[in-house]
């Protein structure tokens, strides 16, 4: 199936590892002109070189921190200067730690709302003008299944990610006349370094082994396993494509059946 992404300019933040890395790879495999951003330059450059080896795409690498407004402006301006347009924005950032509500400080609320909500607001605001001029665009946010079914111990994530849902619905309505589609992808449990780190934190708190915690996740998933980053990435390239041209304002959970609710 031709998804019509060849030559499209796609920015993927947090693209040095995990799901962001898999999303970047998937866009490159579809022939998109890829722009990659993450904080650690050496890891980001290594990921870009591997993508270049396995595809015909040579990514534009722009190290930076999505919590820094100046880095966001530099990301967008450099992309426009080098590639002339921005068609697709994938907003992805690291997740907050696992903590009970009573232990979360004001500083932590500010830090992780900045990371998981304000960064998405600033990224969208930076690319919307050029997408409006083009009258074509895709803004895709990597959130979490917690926006459908809050996850115990992840109150920071539960709150910040729901803010992104409100942003997405608002922007989808406002930007539809410009043929700019805005959607969320909400992964369930995916075997990444972050999920393993969270399992280790929970295991220490509950006096279990990390493997016991990971197995408990799988028990709650009807498909009986965690997802892979590549499975999440496939949803992103579909939603960015012309094949998804009538989908906007949705929060699509990709979770192996984890969410039990009807909606």
Could you outline the blueprint of secondary structure elements for this entry?
Layout: E1 9-13, H1 18-29, E2 33-37, H2 41-54, E3 60-61, H3 69-83, E4 88-91, H4 106-134, E5 137-142, H5 155-175, E6 180-187, H6 193-206, H7 210-219, H8 229-240, E7 251-254
Parallel strand pairs: 1-2, 1-4, 2-3, 4-5, 5-6, 6-7
Could you describe the largest sheet, including whether it forms a barrel?
A: 7 strands, parallel
Number of domains: 2
Q: What count of helical segments does DSSP give? A: 8
Using the alpha-carbon principal axes, give the shape: globular
- Mean of residue pLDDT values: 95
CATH class of the largest domain: Alpha Beta
Biggest sheet strand order reads: 3-2-1-4-5-6-7
Number of strands: 7
Question: What is CATH's topology name of the largest domain?
Answer: Rossmann fold
User: What structural class do the secondary elements suggest?
Assistant: alpha/beta
The residue ranges in which pLDDT falls below 50 over 5 or more consecutive positions are none
**What order do the SSEs take from the amino end to the carboxyl end, as H and E?**
EHEHEHEHEHEHHHE
Rg calc: 18 Å
Q: What is the first-to-last residue Cα distance? A: 29 Å
Q: Which architecture of the largest domain would the CATH scheme give at its second level?
A: 3-Layer(aba) Sandwich
Assembly state: single chain
Strand content: 5-15%
- Helical amount: 40-55%
Keywords:
2 domains; Rossmann fold; 7 strands
